[in-house]
Design goal:
The chain is mainly α. It contains four helices and two strands, in the order ααααββ.
């Protein structure tokens, strides 16, 4: 779709009828993912211990899914310091 728009803006003609049969079919809602609701987050944290809660809250707030945890490293965490005290506010 982006290439199609780019060619249209640049006024370059292209015969899409030759290419369209080879392209994959576009389906709406291909990924069935959705954000967690507040009730689901509270339910997940209601019966877990303190080690699981930060994981659930981080995944929910950042939009992480199960496979993305494999690629996270400590260097990806940036700390935000308080300007007055120099203490860590959050990360």
């Amino acid at each position: 779709m982006v290439l199609r728009k780019l060619l249209k803006v640049a006024k370059i003609s292209f015969e899409w009828e030759l290419v369209n049969p080879t392209l994959p079919k576009i389906t709406k809602n291909q990924g069935k993912d959705r954000a967690y609701t507040l009730e689901e987050i509270h339910t997940m944290c209601k019966y877990t211990d303190l080690r699981i809660k930060p994981i659930v809250y981080t995944a929910a707030s950042a939009g992480l899914r199960l496979g993305s945890w494999n690629y996270l490293k400590v260097k990806h965490v940036n700390t935000i310091l308080d300007k007055e005290t120099g203490k860590i506010k959050c990360a």
